[in-house]
Specification:
This protein is an alpha+beta fold. It has eleven helices and five strands, in the order E-E-E-E-H-H-E-H-H-H-H-H-H-H-H-H.
Length: about 280
């Protein structure tokens, strides 16, 4: 069977023959099976086998991958593409050995207890700590495809949150520019007009704003408009053209393209997904 998630199966006792994209392979105590989303796998136990399986939402893993490589990835969509290339093998057997696999058992037992006990929200950070401890042991054994991660100029890209940036004291001009954009995102802002309002040159404003918020003012404004447009599509009945105009885009095509860049889907797809979730 296959699942719409990543699975990590730790063999705790017994043995079996697994059949997946790696062919037929035996697994036993000390082995861990890593299966990508939508990867078929069948099991033929040799008598009895005990396995603890962790089911991981792929979007969650993309977020972790983005933060791990935030220095060289443009945004979350870039992280998703790069992760697919790095972890190109959809099915792997990791031979940890009994001793190293034994390190995982107390963490897995506690994770199972917290999951079954329905304490996911109350003990969220403890579960994250346990999961990351498991990752710390497993990741060195996972085969990856070598891919050069070139440093990108993220300031001119328009991602959605989260975004990587340096943390440093804010220049008052940067903070003031941000407040102006948040107060009136639908206004026809130009870089020159915004720079004039905060008494800097366009070049100076671009530098101090990017240092503070990780994006140029135009890229930040586009992100704000996409966020406002998403809210209008969720909560109102405006059509795509009207929603785009309400946040500052006079062209439907420009609104649709900017929204897709920021959110990852078209406005029509976004609204359809929201309505399907609400009706479900």
């Amino acid at each position: 069977m296959a699942y719409d998630c990543v699975r990590i199966g730790v063999v705790r006792a017994g043995s079996a023959i697994l059949c997946s994209e790696f062919g037929e392979q035996p697994v036993s105590l000390g082995d861990v099976v890593a299966l990508g989303a939508h990867t078929l796998c069948d099991t033929e136990p040799n008598g009895r086998i005990t396995v603890t399986t962790i089911y991981l939402d792929r979007d969650y893993l993309v977020d972790q991958f983005f933060w791990q490589h935030a220095g060289s990835l443009r945004d979350r969509l870039d992280a998703q593409d790069f992760m697919d290339k790095v972890y190109a093998e959809p099915a792997q057997i990791l031979h940890l050995g009994e001793d190293r696999a034994g390190m995982l058992m107390p963490w897995l037992d506690e994770l199972v207890a917290l999951s079954i006990g329905g304490q996911g929200e109350e003990r969220f950070y403890r579960m994250q700590a346990l999961l990351f401890a498991v990752f710390d042991v497993l990741i060195p054994f996972i085969k990856i495809t070598a891919m050069p991660a070139s440093t990108r100029q993220r300031a001119w890209i328009i991602p959605t949150l989260p975004r990587s940036r340096r943390f440093r004291p804010l220049r008052p001009e940067a903070s003031e520019a941000r407040e102006l954009l948040h107060a009136a995102p639908a206004d026809p802002w130009t870089l020159s007009a915004l720079a004039e309002r905060v008494h800097l040159s366009p070049k100076q404003l671009t530098r101090v704003f990017t240092e503070a918020y990780g994006k140029t003012p135009p890229a930040y404004l586009t992100m704000l408009r996409a966020e406002h447009m998403a809210r209008l599509l969720r909560e109102g009945e405006l059509n795509i053209t009207a929603a785009g105009r309400a946040v500052g885009w006079s062209s439907r095509s420009r609104a649709a393209e900017a929204f897709r860049q920021c959110v990852g889907v078209t406005p029509q797809q976004y609204r359809a997904r929201v309505r399907a979730a609400m009706s479900g």
